[in-house]
Amino acid sequence: MNNKLKPAVIGGVVLGLLSAIPFVNFVNLCCCLWAILGGLLASYLYVKNSPVPANAGDGAIVGAIAGAVGAGIYLVLGIPLAIVSGSAMRAMLINLMTNVDPSQAEMLRRQMEAQGDNIAGVIVQSLVGALLLIVFSVIGGLIGIPLFEKRKGGTMPPPPPAPGGAPYAA
Fold it and tell me: Domain residues of the chain, as ranges?
């Protein structure tokens, strides 16, 4: 399991940080892209360092671990950042919508003002987002195995040396 942990943590840190940073996290609106890329990165690093060919189960495991690490980082960093940057994000969305459809922008502005700075809403939204990060990271890990694993599945690693062999010479 330890050979899965390092690639998964690296993939999880990448997806967690990119998902928590305001404005950069908008990429996740496209099918949780940071989560999928974090799972892909974890499976790539696992395949690269694995002595045996990896299978879909390995991809799912490293993807799940990466998703859990990323979700934890997302919750720890993302909730405070969402609370602090919430008004700037709302203003940006309203300005964007004003350019597209001014009547819809006014309706969106009224809805956002009615909602206000609801911390409980941010927490619930973040918990749902964390769950989605885990699910899509597993998908990324599953996609990564057939992409990166080019070895055939029948080979076994060499056996460990027999006990009682030649003594260690210093």
Answer: 2-148
